[in-house]
Design goal:
By secondary structure, the protein is an all-alpha fold. Helices cover 70% and strands 0% of the residues. The protein has one domain: Ferritin, core subunit, four-helix bundle (Ferritin, Up-down Bundle), CATH 1.20.1260.10.
């Protein structure tokens, strides 16, 4: 499933549940990699928080999926598995910055997805999306701090004009 191909107004409950679970499972697996492979304590602490936050959200997703008879994937799809595999192959020296970049991108995707979820006319799903967005707002501040703590002054992701972590909508094309 490609997030970019689904118009904001038309996401279906089953699609939302499937995509949200994939994003959570991916963040958890990347977090587990970071806890074991990160070169700095701030990255390990951030990853542990991601694991905890996404674990709670994933439990909510599974619960709602079961109550609403919606399919919740048990494994990552090919795209998400490829991302985890690529991160697992990163050299130790490159891991922290690559993880930070993946968290910036993941945050932007998740924010858009949960905003879409808020529009679903199902109170359980829209409430889940609203709760997740509150967590994502706190995570945005954590990501900004993480990037500042590990990023050299000329880090290319900071110069990328497509990324603006201060924009409340996530990625902002200029």
């Amino acid at each position: 499933m490609k997030l970019e191909k689904i118009p904001l107004e038309s996401i279906l409950p089953g699609t939302f549940i499937a995509m949200a679970s994939l994003e959570c499972m991916t963040a958890i697996q990347l977090g587990q990699l970071a806890v074991s492979r990160a070169g700095t304590d701030p990255v390990r602490r951030f990853a542990a928080q991601i694991i905890a936050d996404c674990g709670k959200t994933l439990a909510d997703i599974v619960n709602i999926g079961a109550r609403k008879s919606l399919t919740v994937p048990q494994d990552l799809d090919e795209d998400h598995q490829r991302l985890v595999q690529q991160m697992s192959e990163k050299a130790a020296a490159d891991f922290d910055s690559a993880y930070a970049v993946s968290m910036v991108e993941g945050h932007q995707k998740a924010t858009l997805l949960y905003r879409r979820g808020q529009r679903i006319k199902n109170p359980d799903i829209s409430a889940l999306a609203s709760r997740a967005l509150i967590v994502l707002e706190a995570r945005k501040r954590m990501i900004n701090s993480l990037v500042e703590s590990i990023a050299p002054q000329d880090w290319t992701v900071l110069a990328n004009p497509r990324l603006d972590m201060n924009d409340p909508r996530g990625a902002a094309p200029r």
